[in-house]
Amino acid sequence: MPNIMVFDLFSVIERACANSNQNVRAVVSFMNDTRVFIHGLESSSRGTKGVFFRERYPDMVIQDFHGTLGERMDKLNSLLSEKTSLIMVGSSYGGLMAATFAFNNKERVKKLILLAPALVFREFEPYLGKSTDTPVIIYHGKNDDVVPLTPVHEIACKVFKNLTFNMVDDDHILSKTFKSIDWDNLLETGNQGNSYTIKL
User: What is the pLDDT of residues 108-153, one digit of tens each?
Assistant: First the structure.
């Protein structure tokens, strides 16, 4: 019966090189969450939030979306077709998209983080009579003059059963709040990592 030892990636490489004359077999187990950012209606992946996330979390899925909600959702579904354990960040219309995706893929979405989500738009009406237990964290500015806070709060409390709603003294784009959010914690970057098993 072979000994089984578990190392991080660098330990695996070092151990394999040191024992190059032995029969070494590495078994890789991918346990990473998939992190996704979805921009707003008139923004893009090159907006302030997209640039922030791309620089800080290079493995994050960040793409451009155009057209109707249906066209945008078609692209999103295609991008995430083989992804699970999704942590999705959606800004404004992107928040509506993330919520829509979560309602249709409950078993694949681990968490939603919605920034001033446009849940008051008519495109979200089909989901107003539904609910989900997916953990949802919302940040919404009290001074938002694009997507009103009060009706979003009312909708969110009805459809999201596991909700943390943060009302902040800010505007629609969360210009004062966005970069001060503890993104490492929300995106669970400290809990992830590939595990490698090497049999000697």
Answer: 999 999 999 999 999 999 999 999 999 999 999 999 999 999 999 9
Quote the Cα angle for 85-38-127, to 5°: 75
Q: What predicted TM-score, i.e. pTM, was given to this entire model?
A: 0.80
Please give the Cα distance from 35 to 58 (Å, whole number). 10
My answer on whether 11 and 73 are in the same domain is no
Q: Which residue has the tokens 């000697």?
A: 200
Domain range for 10: 4-28+194-199
Domain containing residue 110: CATH number: 3.40.50.1820
Asked whether 117 and 95 are in contact (CB, 8 A), the reply is yes
Q: What is the pLDDT of residues 157-188, one digit of tens each?
A: 999 999 999 999 999 999 999 999 999 999 99
Contacts of 183 (CB under 8 A, 6+ apart): 53, 56, 57
Examine the domain organization and report whether 145 and 174 are in the same domain: yes
Query: Do both 49 and 22 map to the same domain?
Result: no
Q: Which residues pair with 34 in a beta bridge?
A: 86
